[in-house]
Amino acid sequence: MSGRPLEGLLVVSIEQAVAAPYCTSRLADAGARVIKVERPEGDFARGYDGVAGGESSYFVWLNRGKESLALDLGQEEDRALLLALTDRADVFVQNLKPGALARKGLGPEVLRQRNPRLITCGISGYGETGPYAQRKAYDLLIQAESGLSSITGGPEAPARVGISMVDIATGAAAQSAILESLIQRGVTGRGCDIHISMFDVIADWLAVPYLHAAAGKPPKRIGLAHPSISPYGVFDSADGVPVLISIQNDREWAIFAREVLARSELIEAPEMATNTARVAHRSEVDAAVAQVFAGLEVARITERLMESNIAFARVNDLDGLIAHPQTTTAEVGVPGGARIPLPAPPALVDGARRLEAGESPALDQHGAAIRAEFAPAADAMDGPPLRQARTP
Questions:
Q1: Is residue 226 flagged as an active site residue?
Q2: Residues 189-214: pLDDT tens digits?
Q3: Yes or no: is domain 10-207+326-373 CATH 3.30.230.10?
Q4: Catalytic position from the list 195, 212, 226, 366
């Protein structure tokens, strides 16, 4: 697809797992050239599974459209090549342990001194400073440490969110900060140094339960229900189909009680007239809804909910997503030639979706070409930065 907004920009990323690759995959979708720097043994996400044409589902999803370069940063020659890359790059992303690159003379201050227009972005578990800075951090560990697991699942035990939500949220936050910085660079002509921690990102996303807990009312785990809205949960039809309904305000409650439940007397009942009252009397509200739904087949419930414009959903499994009429897919090529369909990038721009997902690279697939293109001068470790050819 031509005319993508980041065409002409060079992104270099020393990345593994999910958070940083998610960020740079979105930059690649927008047209940036992304050179993925891997250890000689490769991004360990390559070995997570083999369900995508023999390749890892995580790797195929997050590394489409990138070029792979294997470097051993313990070797002087490879460190010089990395500097030659970042001297000409617009964005540099890394999610190594805090301080790992600085100890090799490749910290952001060094890179940006050589290339003042460079935007550097470091992704970490707990940040660069503080008592947890040197701890290893993975998605589930942060889910547990942040308290996210404590409000996830049913009453019996904390649970993991079913996807790598912390990693994905962090990658999205990094992408957003990089795009903001590219806009700023277009004004000032200078890059900047960004730091994003997984813990900070998910703490921000937990702002509402945080405020409830700070007020002495910590949310309880209630499965497929909402801790501060009622009725908002799953109810079974007469033919055994679970239906999730959501009533957002008292006006909708009145419509729901009258037109779906056919029980107008519930509208003004003291324990149900307001959302606050319904939350306080959740068991009575749920019992009233469950009684009506249990007497109706799902087709009739669906008809009433649609006619009343009440929000609802089926409780699908992943096969339901694969077959869903709203699911749009794109194909990613994998080493060996297979084409793997996966959910397409979500943004519609001028009515079109960026469906050219590209190829998922083999380890060091582009190494020889990149080394030839960016061959550093003999004094690259100390030499001046190369002139930037691209604005913003």
A1: yes
A2: 999 999 999 999 999 999 999 999 99
A3: no
A4: 226
